[in-house]
Specification:
- By secondary structure, the chain is mainly beta.
- The radius of gyration is 22 Å and the shape is elongated.
- The mean pLDDT is 88.
Amino acid sequence: DQMALFKRIALFFLLCAAVVPAIAQIKTDVGISFGVGIPQAEFGDNLDNLGFGIQLNGAIGIRGIPISVGADFDFMIYGHERRNEPFSQTIPDVTVKVVTDNNLIAGHFFLRLQPDQFRIRPYADALIGFKHLYTDTKITNEGFEEQEIARSTNFDDTALSYGFGAGLQIQVYVSPEDSESSMDVSLDFGLKYLLGSEASYLKEGSIRRENGQVTFDVKQSKTTLLLPYVGVVLSF
């Protein structure tokens, strides 16, 4: 069972994170990056657009040992539609904006191999987690300050996700040795290749509206994704 396997691996990483502080001085990395999601294989055949989004990540390890464990969280939009509609049939002189977004949320635990004693530090990751694809529609008023009136999730599904990654961190700031607090800053350039089990999802243009009725053109495939990213990492 895929979810049972994911739970076992998640428990393993949590136990590692709990034991590490007790046995040695730890190192902690916290980062933020911006990435482009490039659908691959069947996923790429079904989707017309790239995804654009943000990634948050964190890792913990032992100083002097080139292995750490961590987790990352990605959010990206791979489809967007906007149109103006009358507020209702009885109030056609008031219009609202209707916005539909196709979104992907992914979360992964990772095991990282990376030396920590150099200013230029390559790394390699093994990742396992999930991808959650969902499409939602919201109504906002028109004007400079758009206020949300209503929102609904049109369709969603979740897939097991796993893969590997590689990257390069380049230190751009190193705190002085006599500083009370130690914090280094690095640029982070990386690439993840994330395989995924099958999921059902909508893409931009999949929602059809005819005679007051809504139909969905649902796509289904494996969810393989190539994700290059660039960001900043703080090390403590």
